[in-house]
Specification:
Elements lengths: L2 E5 L2 E4 L4 E8 L4 E7 L6 E6 L6 E3 L7 E6 L4 E6 L8 E8 L8 E2 L3 E6 L1
Parallel strand pairs: 2-11
Antiparallel strand pairs: 1-3, 3-8, 4-5, 4-9, 5-6, 7-8, 9-10, 9-11
């Protein structure tokens, strides 16, 4: 069983930056982030393999977001730069083998609000 706990969400102005963290317990494989905006379906944001050698991003965040992980700390990160109001959402940490369509394990989410 894998447990995931996110942190780092908050309120930021458009153009600003935030870094999300996710601490994992248990063995993880590929990890990543999804987000769900109010009234919308949950969508894939980014993923990274266990070794960190392969990453993937949604087109909407390419060039602005960077995913990384520190396996020694069992921690996943999402550095978000040049934030836009449309990035406002609950961000979920996830782990498993089904990216980008889904995941096997989910955190409870952390809210990111970008004001214009």
């Amino acid at each position: 069983q894998v447990q995931l706990v996110e942190s780092g969400g908050g309120l930021v102005q458009a153009g600003g930056s935030l870094r999300l963290s996710c601490v994992a317990s248990g063995r993880t494989y590929t990890m990543g982030w999804f987000r769900q905006a109010p009234g919308k379906e949950r969508e894939f944001v980014a993923a990274i393999t266990w070794s960190g050698s392969t990453t993937s991003y949604a087109d909407s965040v390419k060039g602005r977001f960077t995913i990384s992980r520190d396996n020694a700390k069992n921690t996943l990160y999402l550095q978000m730069n040049s934030l836009k109001p449309e990035d406002t959402a609950v961000y979920y940490c996830a782990a498993g083998q089904r990216f980008p369509r889904g995941a096997d394990y989910w955190g409870k989410g952390t809210l990111v609000t970008v004001s214009s």
